[in-house]
Amino acid sequence: MGRHISGPVFRVGRWVRDRLLLFDLAYFRFQLFSCIRRNGGFFIVRLKRSANPLIVGLHRRWRGQSVPLLTARINDVLPRLQRQSLDVEVEVAFKRRVYDGVRHTDCERFRLVGVRDPLTHSYHAYLTNIPPTRLTPEDIAQIYATRWTIELFFRELKRHYRAADMPSANRVIVEALVYAVLVTFVVSRALLAALRRRLGVLGARVPEERWAALFAEVAGDLLKVVARRGHTARVLAKEILATLLHEAVDPNANRARLQARVEAGAQYEHRISVGKRHA
Length: 279
Prior knowledge:
The protein is α+β, with helices and mostly antiparallel strands. It contains 8 helices and 9 strands. It has helices at about 30-40, 75, 135-145, 145-160, 170-200, 210-225, 230-245, 260-265, and strands at about 5, 10, 20-25, 40-45, 55-60, 85-100, 100-115, 120-130, 270-275.
């Protein structure tokens, strides 16, 4: 039977075995992560700002003079590091659920990795239970970044394709609307690919989020092109194409796409600044 965790609804059970779960900070609870480990699952989560676990082991050692890490708190050593990555074992204390009116305190050990951003000189820190023999710190950071692809997918569906607008509680109607939203997304991406090919080198300057907003605006006219025939449809299609070719290209050639920005942590990643002293 799954266990209910306080906060956002999430049930852990045997179904997590051999599965990797990626969490945002809303689910940051050591009790939850301990439950996942006991059920044979794996997790990756960003390190919460208020979390300050104790370092009890090293998975990667650096030659030469380095900042001593063992028995130190993570927030005390990160500002002093300049190594490319950090890979340590940490110990955390947390409270279990109440049993028979008593709440017990427990300890758990997890792996903590950090990857240094060469541009901002800050660390992206993650807590996980994946062993070092299976994934490097860089692998973990890259895997976690893929979570934003899913986040941006749902963001686009809700913001531009009305996925959040379900005017009925009837299951059949809701399923039909969900399928309509997904079909809209597929058509949108197919047209985006065709438009990028048409634009050539400028196609790289058509970001997904800009295209989604533009596609939502012209979707009604596109349906008219499909429904009509002959000269009227061709004239309307040329007008729509001219609009898309002009409006889809981002006028700021140096602006990074939203996907690239979130993967780099510009908006969502928890960053911990590091000082100028060498590790």
